[in-house]
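(Structure overview)
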Amino acid sequence: MTTPAEIAAILAKERRVETMVQNIAHARTLSQDLRDLVQMVYLLLLTYDAEKIVDLWENNQINFFLARVIRTNLASPRSPYNAQITRFRHRSAPLKNDG
């Protein structure tokens, strides 16, 4: 039986989550914010109910699950991505170089 960690490793090797984030966000490259979203998706795979992740993997439904997670995080103003990443970026100011 495959574990969520093994599934995440396979997806990472294939860069599947990165590709999906790029496609869903209509981005040519992954900005720092989108790379943070990718990491959040991998973390979710490792912390979500292991049986459900393995079941999605074995039934070839993992892509649908990942797409839903990515779309929800990009679209919902109350998503973890928007709460932690997007809002923080909008509220912060870049450091000035004193050198």
In short: Residues 7 and 13 are 10 Å apart (CA to CA). The chain has one domain: 4-88.
